[in-house]
Amino acid sequence: MISDIQMTSEIDYSELFCPQKDCSAYGKKDQGNIVFKERYGKNNRVLFKCKICKHCFSETRGTPYFGLNTPAEEVVRTLAMIPEKGGIRGTARANGHDKDTVSRWIKRAGDHCEKVNDHLLKDLNLKLVEVDEIWSYIKKTKKCDGRRSSGIW
Ligand SMILES: [Zn+2]
Q1: How many Cβ atoms from other residues are within 10 Å of residue 131's Cβ?
Q2: Ligand 1 center to residue 17 CA distance, Å?
Q3: Ligand 1 centre and the CA of 70: distance in Å?
C-alpha cells in the first residue's frame, strides 16, 4: 500500500475554516481559530479543532482546497457528475449550481488533483476508470479557460 501521508507542516492553516454553520467563524479563513488536534483512522487523516466553537472536523471536511466556502464533498460530487451529464452546463443545471461556479471548481480541481482523487475514490467509492473519465473532462475544459498563448503577441 502506498503511503501518501501529508506532513503536518504542509498544512496551510490560513486556508482552513470552521465548517460548523452556527459558529461565528464559519466559512472564514485565516482567523487563527483552527488548530491541529490529532491524526486518526487508517488513512492517517488530520483532525482539526475550532477554538471558537470547540467543534472538531477532519481535513476532508474543513480543508477548502477549492478556496471556496462550499464543502469539498459537494464540489467533488458535482465534478463526478460531469461525464454523466456530458459537460458543465448539464451538471450545473442538474444540481442547481451556477455554471460559472462549476467551471471554477473544475479549474481548481486541476490544482488539487491528488486530494480530488482521494475524495473520488474513497468517499464516493468510484472506480479508477470512472475517475479517469472525470479527469479527461476536466482537462478538456481546462484548455478553454481563456489562457491564450503569450508567444504570439
Ligand atoms: Zn467553529
Answers
A1: 18
A2: 8
A3: 16
Q: E-assigned strands of the chain?
A: 34-40, 45-50, 56-58
Distance of CA 101 to the CA centre of its chain: 13
Take residue 41 and report the three cell numbers written for it.
483512522
Distance 50 CA to ligand 1 centre (A): 5
Q: Which residue has the cell 475550532?
A: 50
* Sequence letter at residue 43: N
What digits encode the pLDDT tens for the residues 76-95?
899 999 999 988 999 999 98
This prediction's pTM:
0.50
Q: 70 falls in which pLDDT band (50, 70, 90)?
A: confident
DSSP state of 46: E
Provide DSSP, 87-124.
Answer: SHHHHHHHHT--HHHHHHHHHHHHHTHHHHHHIIIIIS
Q: What is the rounded distance in angstroms from the CA atom of residue 8 to the CA atom of residue 39?
A: 10
CA–CA separation, 118 vs 123, rounded Å?
7
